[in-house]
What does this fold into?
Amino acid sequence: MHAFVSLAKAFGIYFPKAHKLGKPTPELIEQEGGFSVTLFKNNLTTEQLDKLGLNDRQLKAVEYVKEKGKITNTELQELFGVSKATATRDLTELVEKYELFEKVGQTGAGTNYIIKMGS
It folds into this structure.
């Protein structure tokens, strides 16, 4: 029991620090009278992205940026056949709500979205 308490305290310290540093939160699962801990290298795995609740366009946008390095609002519109407003909402959520993307540039032409450091 002492080892469990020590481990729980360690994770109590680790979880907030991991989040603050942009690292994915470890997953704790109770099973068969014990528990398992899963530590993720990054939070851009398909499994981790699915847990966030991103819509299909956002999931595909993350994959696109992982492959190409960046995406623009216009590219998102063209890739998915959506309006500028919809593309803007998707990208804004990826920046502000999910904290996966970083906006490079101001507003308008020349603005790109890249993977946020620590994601």
